[in-house]
Design a protein that fits this description.
single chain, about 300 residues, alpha+beta, 4-stranded mixed sheet, 14 helices, about 45% helix, elongated
């Protein structure tokens, strides 16, 4: 049975097709279907193939199927639907905003938000109604830490949904919202040029540890002016370059026929050339470095030749 483009169907639809509750129970016990949320089901194959974010969106689609046009996805749920980058998001509940008034609050696995919503505030994606990307990112940032908020807001700019000015303009409409003080800090830190979760978190680490702000996507050119490399971070006045090394990054660099080792070797050659051209130092950060901000901050400070 497939009554929705997401593959989700409701109990009442199954009953209309002639199935009985005991048929649904038997299918669940046999591992054929999975209950997405109360009264909503999907094939076990589709559920098992989905990651945490995809499963959250399945639940979101199920919520929309039972609420009609009275709500739109918002906050973290809308950010996920737009494909914005998220780091450790809270995905246990689906976030929606009431479009016809009503009361906010948490009921079961849904968080209902209320607020001023204009017609232009609602975007569509197939059967989904949701807040547009910039508003969704700001809403998400308002619910999370500065670091988590910076990841999602950086991605709005990097993925081309908004300019920095547009982020600030949208934020100006939200200054009386809950958690506005923390959100104001997060918005001030947003920059163009952070191209991954790791890069946004690295920049947050520098801010948190009171280090100089790096230039992003710094271009390295040879004597003839030809571009030979672009590095994630640079502190030109200190002769320091920085790169964030995530496994996904190397996977993204793979060309047809290449092995991961080929990419690592090519990256080493690239780094050697960059150091030869600039005569600067290179520092590389990995995920575990971001979980040790004080230690990593001291390491960067030593490379910058700064005193604490």
């Amino acid at each position: 049975m497939n009554l929705h483009e997401s593959g989700i169907w409701l109990r009442r639809q199954a009953l209309d097709f002639g199935y009985r509750d005991r048929d649904l129970h038997a299918a669940r016990r046999a591992g054929v279907i999975v209950r997405v949320r109360h009264g909503a089901y999907i094939s076990a194959e589709a559920w098992n193939a989905a990651d945490e974010v995809a499963r959250h969106l399945m639940k979101a689609d199920a919520v929309l199927m039972t609420h009609g046009d009275s709500v739109a996805l918002s906050h973290t749920t809308a950010a996920a639907a737009h494909g914005l980058r998220l780091w450790q998001p809270a995905l246990d509940r689906v976030h929606v905003t009431q479009l016809r008034g009503g009361v906010g609050g948490i009921r079961d696995d849904i968080v209902y938000h209320v607020g001023r919503v204009r017609a232009e505030d609602v975007a569509s994606q197939g059967d989904r109604k949701m807040m547009p990307p910039t508003r969704a990112a700001l809403e998400t940032a308002s619910l999370h830490s500065v670091e988590q908020g910076l990841v999602v807001l950086d991605s709005v700019v990097d993925l081309g949904f908004a300019t920095l000015d547009q982020v600030h303009q949208e934020h100006s409409k939200m200054k009386k919202w809950p958690n506005s003080a923390r959100l104001q800090v997060t918005v001030r830190l947003v920059r163009a040029g952070s191209q991954s979760v790791g890069e946004s978190r690295s920049r947050h680490l520098c801010w948190k540890e009171h280090l100089p702000e790096p230039q992003l996507q710094f271009e390295i050119r040879d004597a003839s002016g030809q571009l030979v490399a672009t590095v994630d971070f640079a502190w030109p006045e200190h002769g320091l370059l920085g790169e964030f090394d995530g496994r996904i990054k190397y996977g993204r660099l793979l060309k047809p026929g290449q092995e991961p080792g080929d990419v690592v070797f090519a990256e080493k050659e690239r780094e050697d050339l960059v150091r030869e051209i600039t005569n600067w130092v290179m520092i590389r950060l990995v995920w575990r470095d971001l979980d040790l901000p004080r230690v990593t901050g001291q390491r960067i400070r030593r490379k910058l030749r700064l005193t604490a």
